[in-house]
Amino acid sequence: xxAVAVAPRLAAGAxxxxxxxxxxxxPPITPWLPPRTPSSPAPAAxxxxxxxxxxxxxxxxxxxxAAAASSAAAAATAPTVAVxxxxxxxxxxxxxxxxxxxxxxxxxxxxxxxxxxxxKYAATRAALAADPSLAADGGAGAGGGGGPAVELRPAxxxxxxxxxxxxxxxxxxxxxxxxxTEPEMRNVGFPWSEQLVGRTFASSGGTVQAMHxxxxxxxxxxxxxxxGTHHAFRDRGEGFCILNDIxxxxxxxxxxxxxxxxxxxxxxxxxGNGTAEIFQNDPRVTTFDIFGDRNYPWKSRRTNTYxxxxxxxxxxxxxxxxxxxxxxxxxxxHRPQLVFFQAGVDALKGDSFGRxxxxxxGLLKRNHMVYGTxxxxxxxxxxxxxxxxxxxxxxxxQAHTDVYRTAAYRLAAWARAQQA
Length: 420
Ligand SMILES: [Zn+2]
Hints:
By secondary structure, the protein is of the alpha/beta class. It has a single domain (96-419), classed as 3-Layer(aba) Sandwich (Arginase, Chain A). It has helices at 6-11, 20-23, 52-59, 71-76, 119-130, 160-166, 169-176, 182-188, 194-217, 245-257, 273-278, 316-334, 360-377, 394-419, and strands at 97-102, 149-154, 221-225, 262-266, 285-292, 306-310, 338-342, 381-384. Helix 11 links the parallel strand 4 (262-266) and strand 5. Mean pLDDT is 83; it is low at 1-78 and 138-143. It binds zinc ion (ZN). Residues 154-400 form the Histone deacetylase domain. Keywords: Hydrolase. This is Histone deacetylase domain-containing protein. It comes from Edaphochlamys debaryana.
């Protein structure tokens, strides 16, 4: 199938090892933008001066914060918000090791009682790191001991040039420099802070890095324990989403690797309206979306390539049968060269923002179906986070952790089979 031909096409002229990115001159070390105070005027575009200090600042990643750090403590030690002009490429990982980026080194201060469970990201990463079945944080992986492994990497900020492939530069700059209007921020649902800017850029940066990783490998799975912010439009955000990481990474993939068929599988319980609108006139991107029909978004719902709205309380059997019937058809009809999996877990029964009734086991089977489909077809897959709002958050964190653990298991098994 066409997907198999992707790697040779991309490798052409690059010594058999490399993609378009590597074949061309690497982009210069990027300038960074100093943080702007709320009172400073918003510039029309980022400046481009490049000092040696800027080079080293751009090269340095923010230090990882303790997962359980309080918002107040994090606010006092927030790393500087730095937005590189152009993107960088990730270092490769052993075959069979799941690389998962994280953005929780930015801890966003939220007012007491805020309904967004920001700590679930750090909790998911911590659960993966502590899982004895995974040689987490750079374990041997299938390339070494053969067992499943997760390598956790801090996500760098998304590059300005990448973010603005999708988003209007003026919108990105207004957000970065705290010049959004009050109604705009109310639609987003978060109070502005430098940490929010840092986290938002890292959240998209992780998905872009994961995309580069699987595209450079030509196969396999990489993840972002963040992202999946599918309610972000070109010029506005809503529903806790500011930048649309999947749309950005898909657009970077089309620009850098010349892809002409990308499949977005959005299984969050809410429709991915931002992604749908961004790609509504782009035949290169197929958006497939299963969601709760009576869930948000109501007024801002858009049209995906395939929309599958489900009635309240849909359970495992019906959901999984539907997915199983669609996945082969999507692969056959669209022959994707890259798959994005928005793996929201808010279809879980009891989710406070969802209306479906899947079990943890049902979501596990869902994950297996998606990973198995991509691996068997030899199509690279990027998995990102999505919604998950049980109260307390433990059930959501378990389900989020399952998403990445299952990816690590499937990837390791697939790599062993490749090497056999
Ligand atoms: Zn959701």
